[in-house]
Specification:
CATH topology: Rossmann fold
InterPro entries: Class_I_gatase-like, DJ-1/PfpI, Prot/Nucl_acid_deglycase
Number of helices: 7
Protein name: Type 1 glutamine amidotransferase domain-containing protein
Strand order of the largest sheet: 5-4-1-6-7-11-10
Keywords: Glutamine amidotransferase, Lyase, Stress response
Pfam families: DJ-1_PfpI (PF01965)
Strand content: 15-25%
Structural class: alpha/beta
Largest sheet: 7 strands, mixed
Family: Belongs to the peptidase C56 family. HSP31-like subfamily.
Length: 231
Amino acid sequence: MSKILIVMSAADAWERTDGSSYPTGYWAEELAAPHQKFVEAGYRVDFASPGGVLQPLDRHSADPEIAGADCARHVAHAERALREFGPPLKLNEVDIADYVAVVLPGGHGPVVDLHRDTALGRLLTEADAAGKLIGAVCHGPAGLLAAVDPAGGWVFEGRRLTAFTDEEERLFGTADGAPWLLASRLREMGAHHSGGPAYQAFTVRDGNLFTGQNPASSGPMADAMIAALDN
């Protein structure tokens, strides 16, 4: 059975420029929707994180007023999947050769740790070089920033992608005080970032790179990856 790796952040707090700490964790839909679709398509899914730390749930993703009426189903699926898998694999011990694809879900955690995680950078660099599928949704594309080649260049420079937009960050109420904004940083690094309407599903494919703008994009991104894997 072919395997897909979901890489989670290990962060539970996002330090703000005013010195305050914003609680974070994995966003239920962004983990649950791809996981469910991959499993139903016949793939085995492993979880990994820095140090093998199990990140907590972002409670915002369990609030129907924020995450939608279907959020309880996503929370239940995510919690069950993580419980049944057991402790996440340690990211620095993962061999990307064991997987056909790697996926980075969001929550704000990736802008705390994954964007500079050298083990993730190595995995993504190797995955891209091997033509393996890479998926990232919402704040997950922050993890792509870790992929730096031996010469110091960013592996995904010049690629077309999407991510949680600056507009969405402002609408969510977390732009003020953010150390940096993801979409702006991706463009600064040389990515061709595009976005759709706020909080509406929007995905971009550039070769083996699949990205989704926000939680609503999680399922469509996974569908696109499965279609590509099946071809």
